[in-house]
Fold:
Amino acid sequence: MTTQVINFADKFSQFTDLWSPRIIAQMNDYHFKLAKIQGEFIWHSHPETDEVFIVISGSLTIHLRAGDVQLKAGEMAVVPQGVEHKPSAEHECHILLIEPAGTRNTGDAEGDLTAENDVWI
Amino acid sequence: MTTQVINFADKFSQFTDLWSPRIIAQMNDYHFKLAKIQGEFIWHSHPETDEVFIVISGSLTIHLRAGDVQLKAGEMAVVPQGVEHKPSAEHECHILLIEPAGTRNTGDAEGDLTAENDVWI
Structure:
């Protein structure tokens, strides 16, 4: 493995579909994924792992049973293992996700919005 | 653990010293650390882990035995486990580091620049 420059804007220019994370890097057994989101996702949790959201552009709401969290560009949050959450964004929002390789986007709530979780760009 | 908004600019405003990473978040057994860097670090490697650099502001050079990599804001790179590297920055640069909890900043080259690796802000 060599060390390459990974430019978020360049990577975001390579896809348009929403709620379909693309892998851009691997660190040990973790994947770094970019996603474009808009609208409402579904409630789900990841029973096996914490999940990190970093907002690259736009604004993201992470709905939690304990109350919503609002994130904008330059901000991040950690959703703990097993905690139910539902991401949403009024306008298109670009995010960086960090989680173990193989983590399913819909966690314990597999369904129509479940994306392939091994697509690299 | 609750989910909190972590704002990079707010966190960077809380310290001024160079080459002294501050922990801002934990995901499973990984730490997210902010650092302000300027000048030349030392050659070192991390025999046990990959290391991620994300540039929040400014420009970073990661010197590698195979050639240098230049990163600016909005870009990231993964330095693989065991690969010798030396970060440097001509002007003050603000970076986000992601690596396992307990990873020493100077890796296998402990010395004057070795920082405490458990300081949260």
In short: Strands of chain A lie at 6-7, 22-27, 30-40, 51-57, 59-64, 69-72, 75-79, 85-100. The radius of gyration of chain A is 13 Å. The longest strand of chain A covers residues 85-100.
